Amino acid sequence: MITHFKSYLQLARLDKPAGWLLLMWPCWFAVILGSDDYSINYYFLFLFALGSICLRGAGCVVNDIIDRKIDAQVERTKNRPLASGALNVRQALALLFVLLLGGLFVFVQLNSQAKILSLCAAGLAVVYPFVKRFFGYPQLFLGIVFNSGALIAWAQTSWGITNSAWLLYAGCVFWTIAYDTIYGHMDKKDDVKIGVRSSSISFGKGNRIVIIMCYAAFYALVATSAQLVKFPSAWFLCTPTLMHTMYIALKVDFNDAEDCMEKFKDNAFITGFLYFASLYISKILG
Q1: What architecture is domain 2-285?
Q2: Are 245 and 212 within 8 A, CB to CB?
Q3: pLDDT digit string (tens) for 224-250?
Q4: 0.70 surpassed by pTM
Q5: Do 252 and 260 touch, CB atoms closer than 8 A?
C-alpha cells in the first residue's frame, strides 16, 4: 500500500514541486497585475495554486501514459511508475480522474471567459506529448501551453484580456523556453538516440546565447506589462531577478545533468518567487 502510494505521488510528480510552481507563478503574476485596483484577491491565489497542482499532475499522468515506452529507454525516466511497471495504465487513469476532479473544482469557479481559455489550454496540453516527435523546438509549444494560466488568471481577475496580459504571457513563454532548454540537456544524448526532438539539440552551439536572450525578453516583457498597468517601479524592482537569471544562463554546465537540474529548480524556487515579490511590491507602491 505504501509503495503504491509513493508510486502515485511520483506519477503525478507531487514529490517534485518545481513543476507545479512553474505553472503557478504566471497565474500569480496575472492576479497581481490584472486587478483594476491596488487590492489583491488572495482567494484567487489559492485557487490557481490548487489548479496548478492538480492540472500539472494530470498533465504528467497523460504524458507518462503516452510516453511510457519512450521513458523506459531513457536513463533519467526509466524508473517512472509506468515505465518501470510499478503502476499500470488502469491505475494511472484512476489517478488522472482524481486530479481532474480537483481541476473541476477550480474550473466551476471561473468566469465564462476564463473557462473558455481553460478548455483551449486543456486541448493543447493533450497535443504536447506528440509535438516532440516531429517539431524541433517543443519547448516553444510547451511555453505556449504551460503559461496559458497567465491569460486564464488575468481573465478571471479583470474580465478581459488586455495588451498587458499578452505581454505577460509572451514573457512567460520566453521564460519557459529558457528553463526547459536547460532541463532538456539532461536527456540530450538519449533524445538523439531515440529520435525525440528538443530545443536543447536544435539550438546546438547557440544554446547559451538563446537562453540569455529568452531571460532578457522575459524581464523586458513582464516589466513592460507592469508599466502598462501603472506599476513602473517593476522595471527597477525586477532587476535583481534579471541578474539571477543571467547568472543561471552564464554558469549552467550543459554537460552536467545535476547542475542542469539545479539551475532548472532555481527557476521554480528562486526566480518565480523573486518576480512575484517584485510585482507584489510594485503593486503596493503603485
Answers
A1: Orthogonal Bundle (1.10)
A2: no
A3: 999 888 888 889 999 999 999 999 999
A4: yes
A5: yes
Which CA distances in Å does 174 have to 26, 94, 146, 251?
A: 12, 34, 11, 19
The domains of the chain are located at: 2-285
Cell of 125: 496540453
Q: 524508473: which residue's cell?
A: 79
Tell me the C-alpha distance between 259 and 183, whole Å.
Answer: 10
Set of cell numbers at residue 143: 511555453
The region that residue 118 occupies, defined by phi over 0 for left and psi between -120 and 50 for alpha, beta otherwise, is alpha
